[in-house]
Amino acid sequence: MLKTLYIIVFALMSTASWGHGGVMNEGNECKLRVGPYVMNFSGYQPENNVSKQFCDDMPTIGKSIIVLDFIDNKLRDMTVNFRVIKAEVAALGTADDGKVNNAELAQTPFFEIPAKRYPTGTMTITQDFKEKGHFVGYVVIEGENEKFISRFPFSVGYPNPGIPAGLKIPIAVFLVIIVIMIWLARRKPVVLNERKED
Questions:
Q1: Does residue 8 lie in a domain region?
Q2: Do 82 and 137 form a contact (C-beta atoms < 8 A)?
């Protein structure tokens, strides 16, 4: 029983986990890996979730903003293309989420930001999603003699049924307290051997 609770606690307290495809969640920060380069990835829906940041899936439809901040300064000298393609199914939750599909990449995008340089190191994408659905995002970066592509599926309008990030640590602490209370309740009392007088 204790082993099971420990596994649950560590899973809840995990600070680094992969999202879909090239997007990774590190504590309070989302990262997008494109080849050897990394960008900070922030998704917002200001009309519905004013202060909430999303790493991949957008829980509601409406105006959505994605901000890419280049961690590697070399990216400022490279062109960045951002495109989104409609998908039939949601992310698989496996390594296949990050595999580039050339036939998919060649499709007419749902929307696209043409390739250009961002000398400030920040790219802001705004899109108004009118209907819920599943999508695949692609970030294509090109420089002198190099080209890298990152693929990340995401959904819009499907609320996350999982435990909210803000509740994970309080739940983990609560479970630890329960484990300690059960352990203390099951402990046998210490009996001191008293010398009997005849």
A1: no
A2: yes
What is the C-alpha separation between 5 and 115, in angstroms, rounded? Answer: 49
User: Range with the lowest mean pLDDT among 65-74, 125-134, 153-162?
Assistant: 153-162
In three-state secondary structure terms, 36 is coil
> Which residues are CB-contacts of 17 (< 8 A; sequence separation ≥ 6)?
24, 25
Q: What is the pLDDT of residues 51-97, one digit of tens each?
A: 677 776 788 888 999 999 999 999 999 999 999 999 988 877 777 78
Residue 132 within any structural domain of the chain: yes
Residue 158: name the closest of 19, 53, 25, 58 by CA: 58
The H or E element that residue 181 is part of is helix 165-186
Which strand (E) or helix (H) includes residue 166?
helix 165-186
**Structural domain containing residue 91:** 18-163
- 152 CB-near residues (< 8 Å, 6+ apart): 19, 20, 21, 22, 23, 32, 56, 97, 98, 136, 137, 139
Strand order in the sheet with 79-87: 111-117, 79-87, 133-143, 146-156
Percent of the chain predicted with pLDDT > 70: 74
* Residue at 91 is within a domain: yes
170 token code pair: 């309080």
Q: pLDDT value at position 81?
A: 96
